[in-house]
Amino acid sequence: METYWYNHKKPKERAQSLVETVDGILQDQSSRYSRYERFAALYKDQIGCSMKPGEFGKESPVPDLYKNPNFNVIRSCINSLHSRLTVTDASPFVATSNAPENLKREAKKLERFISGAMQSSKASPSMWSMCRDALCYGIGYVRGYVEDGKLLTRCVYPGHVIIDDNAAFDGRTLTMYQLSFTSREMLRLNYPDADEEAFDKAEEVGVSHGGTNARDLVRVVEGWKLPFGKSKGCYCVATLGGELETSEYKAGDFPFVKFTWMNDLAGCHGIGVAEELLGIQQMLNFLIDHVKTNVELTAQVYIAVPANSRVSEEFLQTVENAKIMKYEGNNPPSITTPPVAHPQIFSWIETLKGQSYNQIGLSEMSATSERPGSLRTGLALMTWRDIETSRFAQQARRWDLAFEDLFKMLVRIGSTIDNWSMKSYSKKSVDKIKFSEINLDEDEYVVSIMPRSSIPETASGRVEYVVQLSQMGIVDPQEARRLLSLPDVDKYQDLATAQQELFAVTFEQILDKGTYVPPPASLNLEYAIKLCSDYIARAYLDGIPEENIGQLERWQVEAMDVISGKALEATQEQAPPMGPEGMAPGMPLPGQIPGPIPGGGMPPEGMPPPPMG
C-alpha cells in the first residue's frame, strides 16, 4: 500500500513526499497553468505574461494572441462585471431559531464582531481581488491566516493553489496545497524551531541571468488533509530541504474561500470570461492587426503623372506621404487614395464586438456606463438594471455564498487566537468586544449574509420608491423615514425612532433580567402598549419565565393607568367649576354679578336679570 505524505511518521520523509506530490500534480496539470498565463496576457494586452516567481510580468511569447490589440473586449467585460459584483459588500447575519431575547442580543453582538473582523483583516479588498481572478482565470481564492496574533486575509493567485483534478473530479477533495515563495530570512523568523537544513537546501527560485539569487526567494509547499472518520487531519509546511512545521489539522474545511465565475463540467475549477471570449478576442486581434498593417503599407497618396509631363516633382512631393507614379500617355495627372481594407472587415469587427457583450450577458451601454435616454426615473432605472441582473443570478448567488464562507472562516480561524478581541464600528461609537464574552454555542446559531434590500441604491431612486410605497398606504410615515436611510437625515431619524428603541430596550431588560422600570408618563404610551403586547406574545412563544412576563404585563397595566389618569385630568380641566353646595354648576357665586347671556336670551329660572347698559 502506498504511503501518502500525511501518513509518514518521519519529518524528512513527510516533507519529501509532500513536495513530490505537489510536483506530480503540477506536471499532470501543466496545461491549466499555461492557460492562466494566456488569460493574464489577454487581460493585460501583452504578447505573453509570465506568472512564475522571479519572472512576473515578463513577456513570454504565447501563440495566436497577436500584438497590441486596440480593443480589448475581455478587459472591458471583466471590469464591468467586477464593478457590478463588488459595488456593495455583504454584511453578516447571525440567525437563531426561536431563541430568547438574550441569545438574540448575543447574535447581534456576534454580527458586530464579524463586521469588525472584516475591517481589521482587510477582507473586503481581498474579496475584490478574488472576484477579478475568478473573472479572468475562472476561479479565485482568499486565504485566512494568523500572523503576530492578528487575523489577516489575502488573495492567492489560482496558479499557486494546487488541487488534484482527478481526486476532486466530483468537486470534493480531502487534500489541498499551496505554493509560496519567500526569503530564507523570513522563513527563519516564522519557523525558528525548524531544522537548519530545511532552509539551506530549499529550492531557489527567481535566479537572475547572472546565476545569483539576488531576490533570495525559496519555494515553500503547504499541505492540508481534512479529518475524515477515524482518520486525523494533517497540516504540513515543507521545503525541498526538509520540514518546517507539522500539526494535526482539526478544522472541517480548508482555510480558503473559493469563488468560481462558471462551474466547470467536472472538478472544482471554473470557467472565466477570458476563456469564454478567447476565440472572439483572438479574431479581433487578428483583424485589427491586419487593418493596422494595411494602414502602414497602403495608407498613402498615389499621384499618377504622364512621363512627359512638365509638372515639377518637387511640387508634388510637398504632399505628405505621397508616392509619384509615372506612366506613358497624355492623360492628365490624377491623385488616388486606395482603401485600407474592405468595408466588410470593419463591419465584421463591429459584429464581433457586439457578440462579445451579448455572449457574456452585458450590453455595450452598461459596459460604457451609459443608459437609454428614455429612462429618467429611479424606479425605471431599477427595473432596467434588473433585466440585465437576472442574467447573472447564479453568479450573484455564488458571490453571496463566498461571503458566507468568509464569515465562517474568520470565526473558525480567529477563535484559535488567545483572548481574541475586536473593535466593533458603528456610525455612533466604537466598542471593543471579546470573542469569549459572546455567549453562543456553535449549535445555537447559523452565520449567513444579511438579506439584500430591494430598494434602489441611489438617493433619487430610493426617495421615489419610498414615496410610492407611502402613497399606496403600504408603509406608514414612521416606517418610510426608516426606509429612506439617507446620510443627511440620520440625525432626524435617530430622534424620530428614539422612543421606539427605548421601549424595545426596556422590554428586553424586563424579560431577560426581571428588572422593572415604570412607564414614563411623558412618552407615547399608546404606541408602547401595542409594542408591549407583541413582546408578551413573543415571550410566551420563546418560553420566557412567567415571573418576567408578569413584570411586563404589570408594565402594560400601569401604562394603561397612566393614560387613563391623563384622560381624567383632561376631562376635569374642561368641566366648569363647581359652586357651593346646593347651587347648580355655572351659577354666579354670592355677590357676583352675572354676565350677559350669549345670544341675548333670558336667564334661567331663579337667576336675576343681567345688568342693563
How would you describe this protein?
With 613 residues, the chain is of the alpha+beta class. 44% of the residues lie in helices and 15% in strands. The chain has 20 helices and 18 strands. The strands form 6 sheets. Strands 4, 5, 6, 7, 8 and 9 form a 6-stranded antiparallel β-sheet that branches. A 3-stranded antiparallel β-sheet has the order 3-2-10. A hairpin with a 4-residue loop joins strand 16 and strand 17. The chain is flat, with a radius of gyration of 39 Å.
List the helices and strands and how they pair.
Elements: H1 11-28, H2 30-44, H3 73-85, E1 92-95, H4 101-120, H5 123-137, E2 139-147, E3 150-156, E4 161-162, E5 175-183, H6 184-190, H7 196-200, E6 204-205, E7 217-225, E8 234-239, E9 242-247, E10 256-260, E11 262-263, E12 270-271, H8 273-276, H9 278-298, E13 301-306, H10 313-316, E14 322-327, E15 334-336, H11 343-360, H12 364-367, H13 378-389, H14 393-414, E16 421-425, E17 430-434, E18 446-449, H15 459-471, H16 477-484, H17 490-496, H18 498-513, H19 525-542, H20 546-574
Parallel strand pairs: 13-14
Antiparallel strand pairs: 1-18, 2-3, 2-10, 4-5, 5-7, 6-7, 7-8, 8-9, 11-12, 13-15, 16-17
Helix pairs in contact: 3-5, 9-11, 13-15, 15-16, 18-19, 18-20, 19-20
**Oligomer kind:** single chain
Describe the largest sheet.
Answer: 6 strands, antiparallel
Number of strands: 18
Amino-to-carboxy terminus distance: 128 Å
Mean pLDDT: 79
What is the overall number of helices?
20
- Basic shape: flat
Helix proportion range:
40-55%
Spans where pLDDT lies below 50 across 5 or more residues? 381-387
SS-derived structural category: alpha+beta
